[in-house]
Amino acid sequence: MNTTRQWAALYSGMLRHPKYRRLSAPGRAGLLHLLLLAGTVSPEATWRIDELVEILELDGFSEGGALSVSAHDVLDELERLGWLDRDDPETLTIHNWDKWQFACSREVAAAWEASRKREWRLKTKANEATARAQDNKGQDNKRHNTSPGSPGSVRDVSGTSPGRGQVVPSAGPCRVCSEPMTDKDPGAKVGPGSIQHGAH
Q1: CB proximity list for 21: less than 8 A, separation 6 or greater
Q2: Domain map of the chain by residue range?
Q3: Does the pTM exceed 0.70?
Q4: 3-class SS at 85?
Q5: What share of the chain in percent tops pLDDT 90?
Q6: How far apart are CA 179 and CA 173, in angstroms?
Q7: Which of 80, 95, 82, 86 shows the shortest CA–CA distance to 38?
Q8: Which residues pair with 84 in a beta bridge?
Q9: Collapsing DSSP states into helix, strand and coil, what is residue 120?
Q10: Labelling 154: which of 14, 53, 129, 191 has CA 20 to 30 A away?
Q11: How far is CA 163 from CA 20, 133, 152, 188, in A?
């Protein structure tokens, strides 16, 4: 048998539920046993009655067993108190199994997704910090490179821009018309992060 569910959702509030409180000790043991078995059958939480009786008897639910109660008595009690539904004369299912497990599955999935996103954010922040540190290191190197014919960026020493001493481009597209130009072109206006023709 191929099983996919290795867990079952049990809610602590169930202990206060009148339906649970009315169960006998063997009934509670039987319910827990069935809840844990439910994910190992296909379809989930659904058994033919004769198979379920055999499973419970093998696991100690018999008059001569550890619980001193028959599997039939346990199943009758669970059905009478609404923990089991009879789909047809031969089949029993756990009441609202899909609703319980789906709610838990959503919570588990949401918790996993939140954890995955948290890890991604932390990793992204670390990568961004590393990139900023490398950019800052690279910018410091560029600021020291102020020779007149050097490619890349040059220091703005004109005193005309509020970003005095900031790195500015020495070549690139004009900010207004997008034509290629350099800071050596006649009338070129160079400022922090931009270059443009003087005629604009």
Answers
A1: 15
A2: 12-95, 148-200
A3: no
A4: strand
A5: 26
A6: 5
A7: 95
A8: 94
A9: helix
A10: 129
A11: 74, 21, 18, 17
Residues 169, 154: Cα–Cα separation, whole Å: 6
Continuous segment of H or E residues that includes residue 49: helix 49-58
Q: In angstroms, rounded to a whole number, what is the distance separating the alpha carbons of residues 139 and 22?
A: 75
Q: Are strands 167-169 and 46-48 parallel, antiparallel or unpaired?
A: unpaired
| Pick from 21-30, 86-95, 144-153: least confident | 144-153
- Residue pair 69/26 in contact by the 8 Å Cβ criterion: yes
With a CB cutoff of 8 Å and minimum separation 6, the contacts of 185 are: 197
> Lowest mean pLDDT: which of 32-41, 68-77, 117-126, 158-167?
158-167
73, 76, 82, 83 alpha-carbon torsion, rounded to 10°: 60
Strand partners, 72: none
Residue 193 Rama label (left phi>0; alpha psi -120 to 50; beta): left
Written as six digits, the tokens of 117 are: 């996103």
- Residue 132 in this model has a pLDDT that exceeds 70: yes
pLDDT band (50, 70, 90) for residue 75: very high
pLDDT in tens, 154-170: 555 555 555 444 555 67
